[in-house]
């Protein structure tokens, strides 16, 4: 087949590394601008130059960049540090005794907060391909990863959302393994969470929760602190202040340096043509998948996994200097904007293909 390599020279040259790095699905590589920003900030802090107002401005610009990436207004986006904490917030809107429907073997950070929510909330798991058909009148919420971490499978989001609407159920989508290579419109779901340290190549500790106004009214800001105030700088003490009137009421106090690195990383991805990124990443993955003799999925993915129960293929990749990963008895590689056709060849050669 013809190898599709969309022209993304700006993105590829923004990274110092990338050759042989097929592990964006584990953690992304920081672009040079993100690295430089963090180093400059730490050096300034070491000299005693710490500007909290500048940090806050950085957070707000980064929030706006994420909103742009998922095509919603920034007022719909809360900042966070982990996906599981966001899932716990969503759990507060599930009614007592309600059912949360999840795919089997989905990432635990999206499942466990509902398992541990109490109040008689029941969690039911079905195969990913059966998720839309399993939604019924019992279902209060459907929680699922848009792209499965263990397999790279892309969920049929349109079918899931349509079925949820028919039955009056909410949708909570984890887009951590999607945003950055797969175009995502957060407005199509009641809530979307994304940790930015994978495909958005930001430092770990920067996550976002995009949540619609209707669901916001049903959620409880159980983690509210000073940064959840209408004006964080006058809500630093006590509990006698107004929370923000939009998704910012669910903010947690930001990890300053992480956001310093996240802003240039998200700015890079916001500057790219998302359709071209999707074509580039899935084109590389499809070429690799085809030459490995693996079946092509119905919905293309930038992640390729295959059975590797003894870890031999992962060991071959590692010995060849290729960064890959193993999950649930499968070897896993992911192709991102800093990869090209040479990375496909290197991986295939390491595997003897």
Could you explain the architecture of this structure?
The protein contains twelve helices and ten strands. The protein has two domains: 9-30 and 273-350, Aspartate Aminotransferase, domain 1 (Alpha-Beta Complex), CATH 3.90.1150.10; 52-270, Aspartate Aminotransferase, domain 2, CATH 3.40.640.10. Residues 1-7 have low confidence and may be disordered. The protein is α/β, with parallel strands linked by helices and 353 residues long. The chain is globular. The longest helix is centred in the N-terminal third of the chain and has 18 residues, at 52-69. The strands form two sheets. The chain has a seven-stranded mixed sheet with strand order 1-7-6-5-4-2-3, with helices on both faces. Strands 8-10-9 form a three-stranded antiparallel sheet. The two termini are 16 Å apart.
Features:
353 residues; 2 domains; seven-stranded mixed sheet; 10 strands; Aspartate Aminotransferase, domain 2; disordered N terminus; Aspartate Aminotransferase, domain 1
Largest sheet: 7 strands, mixed
* CATH top-level class of the largest domain: Alpha Beta
CATH topology label of the largest domain: Aspartate Aminotransferase, domain 2
**Distinct helical segment count:** 12
The low-pLDDT segments are: 1-7
Nearest-integer average pLDDT: 94
**How large is the share of residues in beta strands?**
5-15%
Please give the alpha-carbon distance between the first and last residues.
16 Å
Q: Structural class, from helix and strand content? A: alpha/beta
SSE string, helices as H and strands as E: HHHEHEHEHEHEEEHHHEHEEH
């Amino acid at each position: 087949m013809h190898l599709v390599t969309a022209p993304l020279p700006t993105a590829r040259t923004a990274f110092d590394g990338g050759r042989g790095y097929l592990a964006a699905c584990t953690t992304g590589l920081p672009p040079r601008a993100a690295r430089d920003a963090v180093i400059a900030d730490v050096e300034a802090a070491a000299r005693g130059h710490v500007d909290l107002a500048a940090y806050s401005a950085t957070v707000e610009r980064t929030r706006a960049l994420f909103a742009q990436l998922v095509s919603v207004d920034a007022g719909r986006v809360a900042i966070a540090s982990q996906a599981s904490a966001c899932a716990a917030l969503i759990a507060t809107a599930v009614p007592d005794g309600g059912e949360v429907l999840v795919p089997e073997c989905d990432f635990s950070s999206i499942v466990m907060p509902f398992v541990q929510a109490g109040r008689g909330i029941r969690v039911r798991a079905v195969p990913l391909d059966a998720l839309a058909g399993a939604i019924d009148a019992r279902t209060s919420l459907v929680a699922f990863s848009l792209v499965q971490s263990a397999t790279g499978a892309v969920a049929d989001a349109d079918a899931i959302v349509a079925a949820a609407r028919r039955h009056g159920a909410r949708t909570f989508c984890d887009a951590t393994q999607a945003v950055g290579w797969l175009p995502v419109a957060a407005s199509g779901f009641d809530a979307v969470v994304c940790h930015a340290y994978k495909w958005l190549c930001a430092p770990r500790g920067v996550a976002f929760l995009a949540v619609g106004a209707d669901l916001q009214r049903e959620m409880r800001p159980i983690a509210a602190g000073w940064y959840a105030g209408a004006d964080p700088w006058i809500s630093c003490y006590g509990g006698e202040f107004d929370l923000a009137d939009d998704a910012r009421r669910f903010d947690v106090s930001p990890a300053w340096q992480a956001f310093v690195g996240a802003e240039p990383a998200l700015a890079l991805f916001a500057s790219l043509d998302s359709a071209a990124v999707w074509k580039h990443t899935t084109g590389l993955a499809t070429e690799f998948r085809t030459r490995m003799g693996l079946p092509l999925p119905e919905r293309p993915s930038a992640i390729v996994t295959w059975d590797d129960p003894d870890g031999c293929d992962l060991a071959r990749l590692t010995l060849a200097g290729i960064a890959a990963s193993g999950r649930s008895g499968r070897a896993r590689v992911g192709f991102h904007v800093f990869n090209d056709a040479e990375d496909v060849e290197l991986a295939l050669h390491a595997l003897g293909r």
